């Protein structure tokens, strides 16, 4: 670990001079520690140094609570946001990206190209075009005064979406939105995919982007501003649709997908690597058992994983509860696995069990029918 | 007729036929020519009743009384008579052969072969020489009166190979184009001894969307040089004494064409001692930019039909994007056009709301991308002055950035909706800069593909 830190420091030391060298003399972005704002010093078109202030959207301490439940084959996701009392800005935005397979009664544009084609087809039909442009938001549950979009996220997977939600009535003085100390529920959607642990982006009412009294900066500092804008949010873990259910259903394949998701958790500090190895052994055994047509052994291994999780956190199967750390929950919480991650994995494993039983019953029914014939 | 006579006639006819065939085959086959500049010694002569000189400078020649006779020309083989530009006095910087010392016409005839009689009073003349050829010096150059150059049939051929397209510099990592010059003898083999290849660059000044093109337009550079400031031989530099430009054992020289910031049509020319001239056109461009398609969700023209942001005589083709960026623009513009949160009160009495004007699109990129030098136009940038062939219109070079009007004038995003518009951009992962805030040029600078160019 020490070596890693040392290497990191060396890399950091190397990176800084190279970045500074690319800037014009006097240029740079500095955090004003008194206000939390960024001071942008830049050279204008004739090399004169100018200054601009950028108020980031990160002066909040938000909490995000995720709930998810199986409703007749669709997974319903619901979220509550809270603007922590130590924040300094109203909370105005919540974004999930990526989110997979959102269920909608209207067609969702899978790609920017699809949107473009449809818009061009409907160019002389403004009524339908308006429905198309705004229709995607109908897939969302949104609290009053807020709105959400469902946008192609631009990734390689067609069913991946970006879901940005915003407070509607943004004023010029940056005063409105979800005020400090308040919470708001009512965000949600349905998906055909099982939950994984993703990152939601929450943002306060900052500037949202830099502004300049002139033509602004040039060169390397533009790239730095780009990075600043792209990271101008507070991340929070959220349960989001991530894992596609294979069709036809295949428990082994689904377990492989779950394992792939769990493998990402140690690097996100959600899961202790040693505990991850223990979980993985049982999940591998479960997947292999299903692959070898030994459903009983498969279920036993899944139950074994669930027991390990239950040993770390209580009440994981209370789907309608959020992951709020009540005193009771805290008493049971260990450092081996994040509570949200444990809830998500337990939910997904229960789904596998339920589907396996259903498939088993279905197989029995089929064979009974054949015997009757 | 006896047999001897018949044989004699037959030989004569065969001979004539041979001559005719030789003429026919040579007809239209234009010899490849080697051309070099005439070089010093340059002598200056004054003319009055005859030629007087030589003198070291036109000053000396003009200050004479023009009374001496033409002396024997020392040195050079050929003379050159041209016409100088100044009607009054001579121009020392001009490569002139005849310059006027005065403008007092006195009908003195000067007969100089092969020109028609020219009448000057008190003219001065220069005399140039052709250099001795470095390759096959037994075949001397001839002086070309019309171009003031020395020519002969090329002893070597030179060709240029390599790509024909490269991106403009500054925002590109592929703005360097490797070029190979290959020199061969008439039999196809490389020259017996290494020869020095000389390269020059020219640019069609009004290409790439720069209607304001001028002779100062940067041409880019060759190899290690920073710039090629004129159409003359640029590389190797005249001061270079090393191996730069020398052919290798295969008769080849490899060099890079370093594109300038401005897109357009450029020409690389190369020659060598004993060579003809090879030229290679190169398009400096960002490939794949297309005009933004006309759509009802955004405006590319003012209500009077003028193209928004177009400046006739400078840049008129300013609405070009990559297709993906154009699709993203459409997505944003349609969302702005149809989302009820952008409605504004249009009747304060009834409270009736309506959508604001569609987004008004100012500059995107020039048709081939590259630097968009808006400050080349005098008066365009009051704070910066005239700045041609470089910034300060940051980005706008690769067809992924567009400006949207927000200055409070017709077609602008209403002040009360700017925050909502910013939120729309943020939701769509479009970083932006709000530029010239509070001025008549206020606009949003959108990076449609989510990245700085």
Q: Can you put this structure into words, describing what you see?
A:
The complex is a heterodimer of chains A (373) and B (453). Chain A has 9 helices and 12 strands. The model of chain A is unreliable at 1-21 (pLDDT under 50). Chain A folds into 2 domains: 62-209 and 233-243, Immunoglobulin-like, CATH 2.60.40; 251-372, no CATH class. Chain A has 373 residues and is of the alpha+beta class. Chain B has 3 domains: 36-129, no CATH class; 154-284, Sandwich (Immunoglobulin-like), CATH 2.60.40.10; 290-447. Chain B has helices at 3-26, 58-62, 323-338, 418-427; strands at 33-37, 39-47, 51-55, 98-100, 109-110, 118-119, 123-129, 142-144, 149-153, 156-162, 165-166, 176-185, 197-203, 221-222, 233-235, 252-258, 264-272, 278-284, 290-291, 298-299, 320-321, 344-347, 352-354, 359-360, 401-405, 432-435, 443-447. In chain B, the strands form 9 sheets. Chain B has a 5-stranded mixed sheet with strand order 11-18-17-13-15, with no helix packed on it. Chain B has a 4-stranded antiparallel sheet with strand order 3-2-7-4. In chain B, a hairpin with a 7-residue loop joins strand 26 (432-435) and strand 27 (443-447). The radius of gyration of chain B is 32 Å and the shape is elongated. Chains A and B meet through strand 6, helix 2, helix 3, strand 9 and helix 4 of A and helix 3, helix 4 and strand 26 of B.
């Amino acid at each position: 670990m020490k070596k890693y830190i040392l290497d990191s420091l060396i890399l950091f030391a190397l990176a800084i001079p190279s970045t500074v060298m690319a800037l014009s003399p006097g240029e740079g972005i500095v955090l004003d520690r008194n206000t939390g704002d960024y001071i942008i010093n830049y050279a204008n078109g004739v090399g004169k140094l100018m200054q601009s202030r950028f108020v980031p959207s990160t002066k909040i301490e938000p909490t995000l609570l995720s709930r998810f439940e199986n409703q007749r084959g669709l997974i319903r996701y619901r979220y509550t946001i809270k603007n922590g009392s130590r924040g300094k800005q109203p909370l105005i935005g919540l974004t999930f990206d990526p989110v997979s397979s959102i269920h909608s009664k209207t067609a969702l544009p899978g790609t920017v190209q699809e949107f473009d084609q449809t818009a061009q087809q409907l160019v002389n039909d403004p009524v339908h075009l308006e429905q198309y442009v705004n229709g995607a938001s109908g897939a969302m549950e949104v609290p009053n005064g807020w709105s959400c979009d469902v946008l192609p996220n631009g990734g390689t997977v067609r069913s991946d979406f970006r879901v940005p939600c915003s407070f509607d009535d943004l004023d010029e003085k940056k005063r409105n939105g979800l005020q400090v100390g308040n919470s708001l529920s009512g965000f949600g959607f349905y998906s055909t995919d099982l939950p994984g642990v993703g990152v939601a982006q929450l943002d306060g009412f900052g500037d949202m982007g830099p502004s300049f009294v002139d033509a602004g900066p040039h060169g390397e500092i533009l790239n730095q501003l780009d990075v600043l804008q792209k990271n101008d949010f507070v991340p929070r873990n959220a349960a989001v649709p991530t894992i596609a259910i294979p069709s036809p259903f295949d428990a082994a394949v689904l377990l492989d997908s779950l394992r792939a998701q769990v493998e990402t958790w140690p690097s996100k500090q959600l899961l202790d690597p040693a505990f991850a190895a223990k979980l993985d052994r049982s999940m591998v055994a479960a997947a292999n058992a299903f692959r070898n047509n030994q459903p009983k052994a498969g279920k036993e291994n899944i139950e074994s994983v669930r027991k390990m999780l239950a040993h770390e956190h209580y009440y994981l199967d209370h789907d309608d509860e959020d992951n709020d750390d009540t005193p009771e929950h805290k008493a049971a919480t260990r450092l081996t696995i994040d509570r949200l991650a444990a809830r998500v994995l337990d939910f997904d494993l229960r789904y596998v069990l339920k589907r396996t039983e259903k498939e088993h019953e279905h197989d029995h029914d089929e064979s009974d029918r054949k015997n009757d014939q | 007729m006896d047999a001897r006579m018949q044989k004699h006639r037959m030989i004569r006819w065969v001979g004539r036929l041979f001559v005719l065939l030789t003429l026919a085959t040579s007809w239209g086959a234009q010899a490849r020519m080697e051309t070099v500049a005439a070089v010093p010694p340059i002598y200056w002569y004054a003319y009055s009743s005859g030629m007087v000189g030589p003198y070291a400078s036109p000053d000396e020649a003009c200050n004479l009384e023009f009374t001496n006779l033409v002396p024997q020309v020392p040195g050079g083989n050929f003379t050159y008579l041209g016409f100088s530009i100044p009607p009054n006095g001579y121009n020392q910087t001009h490569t002139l052969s005849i310059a006027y010392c005065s403008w007092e016409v006195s009908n003195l005839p000067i007969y100089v072969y092969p020109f028609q009689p020219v009448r000057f009073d008190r003219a001065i003349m220069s005399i140039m020489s052709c250099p001795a050829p470095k390759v096959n010096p037994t075949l001397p150059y001839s002086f070309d009166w019309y171009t003031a150059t020395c020519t002969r049939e090329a002893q070597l051929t030179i060709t240029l190979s390599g790509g024909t397209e490269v991106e403009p510099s500054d925002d590109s990592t592929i703005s360097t184009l490797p070029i190979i010059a290959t020199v061969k003898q008439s039999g196809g083999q490389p020259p017996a001894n290494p020869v020095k290849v000389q390269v020059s660059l020219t640019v069609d000044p009004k290409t790439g969307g720069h209607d304001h093109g001028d002779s100062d337009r940067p041409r880019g550079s060759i190899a290690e040089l920073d710039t090629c400031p004129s159409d003359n031989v640029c590389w190797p530099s005249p001061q270079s004494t090393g191996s730069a430009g020398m052919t290798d054992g295969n008769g080849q020289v490899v060099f890079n064409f370093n594109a300038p910031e401005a897109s357009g049509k450029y020409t690389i020319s190369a020659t060598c001692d004993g060579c003809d001239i090879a030229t290679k056109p190169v398009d400096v461009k960002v490939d794949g930019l297309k005009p933004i398609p006309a759509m009802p969700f955004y405006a590319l023209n003012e209500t009077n039909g003028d193209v928004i942001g177009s400046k006739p005589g400078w840049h008129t083709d300013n609405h070009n994007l990559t297709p993906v960026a154009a699709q993203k623009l459409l997505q944003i513009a349609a969302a702005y056009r149809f989302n009820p949160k952008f409605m504004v009160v249009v009747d304060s009495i009834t409270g009736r709301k309506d959508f604001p004007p569609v987004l008004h699109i100012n500059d995107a990129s020039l048709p081939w991308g590259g630097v968009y030098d808006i400050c080349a136009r005098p008066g365009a940038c009051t704070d910066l002055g005239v700045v041609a062939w470089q910034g300060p219109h940051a980005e706008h070079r690769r067809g992924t950035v567009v400006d949207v009007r927000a200055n409070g004038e017709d077609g602008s995003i209403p002040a009360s909706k700017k925050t909502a518009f910013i939120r729309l951009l943020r939701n769509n992962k479009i970083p932006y800069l709000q530029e010239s805030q509070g001025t008549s040029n206020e606009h949003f600078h959108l990076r449609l593909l989510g990245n700085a160019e």
